[in-house]
Design a protein that fits this description.
It is built from 15 helices and 20 strands. It is of the alpha/beta class and 466 residues long. The relative contact order is 0.13.
Length: 466
């Protein structure tokens, strides 16, 4: 991928982006959102078919988990873009600022690099494109090497919509999809923000390169999340919701539960609800054979450490196809319990109470979304922040996290910065403050002692002991 030239002929590979590329009116960006949504609807069948071919997803899952959330995000940004990015008058200044006018506005950061992931190739990249372009940024995209055709088709739809909205199509720069391209871009070009979605190991490397060049980053990395089932939970609901999340996208969902922690009083009954669901599940198609092998290795490790297959079946993968596994009585020392896998398998164990469940959950140290099943949601809401995750979902798994207004913000080894929602949009802009002095003009010389006495009294700076 070669760098392009700006209208004045200067290269874009170094230094900040020229100002003229940042001045696209909000009205034009809103029009682009409308046309992008229209283009997605027109290209729905082609996009779905391409994802099915590349990743083996069921067509219905592509529609429900990729297309619909992306369209919802477009609609949300269409409604809230002016409110979030438009100029605002700031009130509440100090008394010595009487008469001053202070206004803030948001403008694009400049040039943004999106290093895309493959597990939700349309939804995740699509929302990031919505936010970057709606903020007015020149946007470079490095597609995933595992879903290059689907993401290239998505980018062609974005480019078509730019033209329809009268926005220069070279505001979108499509890069090579090879594995090496991301590092090359980071080393050879300057970006005002880099957004990466993927593994912690790759995220760490990107952070090191970007930091050495003073380029800000948002890292949306994986979680090793928990589902917690309280003794008073609706166990049928818990079993269905958790198992559905384990199966979603063949288990290749960052916020899906890797382990289930069940209060002892409900443990046996919960396993009884989940067992028939696990037994009735057919093999699922994963992204590739090595991914299926790694997931099954985690299952086997849990079984060797004393766990047992809830379905009674332990079946190794057949190429990309892997039968989902639920392992009961998994020990915290097992790889499956730690959540290092990325596939349709889950570890289950009994805990004495919620305190033990919360402690085990936090001990893993990498989480994005925690699910809690209970008939007493008020008690969980009061303790939600102590779970240390971006999302706490009560009586459901994964599905509510796709709300377009919510930001995804990792912590520690799950990443940093915000993507999606208001937080993600604002992260791809910078605030500009414009002030205008009012009628109160300070004297050029030092104030008199009499004036200083008045100022101190007016401000409550009278001295004395606290």
């Amino acid at each position: 991928m070669a760098s392009r030239a700006l209208p004045d002929g200067g290269p874009t590979s170094d230094g900040p982006l020229e100002v003229q590329t940042l001045s696209i009116p909000i009205a034009d960006r809103l029009h682009w959102l409308d046309r992008f949504a229209a283009g997605l609807r027109r290209q729905h069948d082609r996009l779905v078919a391409t994802v099915v071919e590349e990743l083996g997803k069921p067509a219905w899952e592509v529609t429900l988990t990729e297309m619909l959330p992306l369209l919802a995000s477009i609609h949300w940004h269409r409604r809230h873009l002016k409110r979030l990015l438009g100029p605002k008058r700031q009130r509440g200044g100090a008394w010595w600022q009487w008469g001053d006018a202070v206004r803030t506005e948001r403008t694009a950061v400049g040039r943004v690099l999106l290093i895309a992931t493959w597990n939700y190739p349309i939804q995740l990249l699509g929302v990031q494109l919505v936010q970057s372009i709606a903020a007015g940024n020149e946007t470079w995209v490095k597609p995933s090497e595992r879903s290059p055709r689907a993401q290239s088709l998505l980018l062609s739809t974005v480019r078509w919509a730019l033209g329809e909205a009268g926005i220069p199509q070279d505001m979108l720069v499509e890069c090579d999809a090879s594995r090496e391209e991301g590092e090359r871009l980071l080393r050879e070009h300057h970006f005002d923000h880099v957004l990466f979605t993927g593994s912690t190991a790759v995220g760490r490397s990107i952070a090191e390169i970007a930091a050495s060049r003073l380029m800000p980053t948002t890292l949306e990395l994986s979680g090793h999340d928990s589902a917690i089932v309280c003794a008073d939970a609706d166990l049928d609901l818990a079993a269905r919701s958790i198992w559905q999340a384990v199966l979603l996208n063949a288990g290749q969902t960052c916020m899906a539960p890797r382990r289930v922690l069940v209060e002892a009083a409900a443990y046996r009954h919960f396993l009884g609800r989940l067992a028939p669901l696990a037994a009735a599940t057919s093999p699922l198609t994963m992204v590739d054979a090595p991914a299926a092998t790694r997931t099954f290795a985690a299952v086997r490790d849990a079984l060797q450490r004393g766990g047992r297959s809830l379905s009674g079946v332990v079946e190794p993968p057949n190429g990309r196809a892997l039968r989902p596994h639920a392992v009961a009585d998994a020990t915290p020392e097992s790889t499956l319990f730690a959540g290092e896998h990325f596939g349709p398998a889950v570890a289950m164990t009994s805990v004495a109470d919620l305190n033990e469940a919360f402690g085990l959950h936090r001990s893993v140290g990498q989480a994005l979304a925690t699910s809690v099943f209970t008939r007493s949601p008020k008690a969980i809401r009061a303790r939600a922040a102590s779970l240390g995750t971006s999302f706490v979902t009560i009586n459901d798994c994964v599905r509510p996290t796709s709300h377009p207004a919510t930001a995804l913000a990792g912590r520690g080894t799950s990443g940093w910065g915000a993507s999606r929602g208001a937080g993600g949009l604002l992260a791809l802009t910078r605030e500009v403050t414009v002030t205008e002095r009012g009628w109160l003009t300070p004297p050029p010389e030092a104030p008199s002692e009499r004036l200083m006495v008045w100022i101190r009294r007016w401000s409550g700076l009278t001295g004395g002991h606290p």
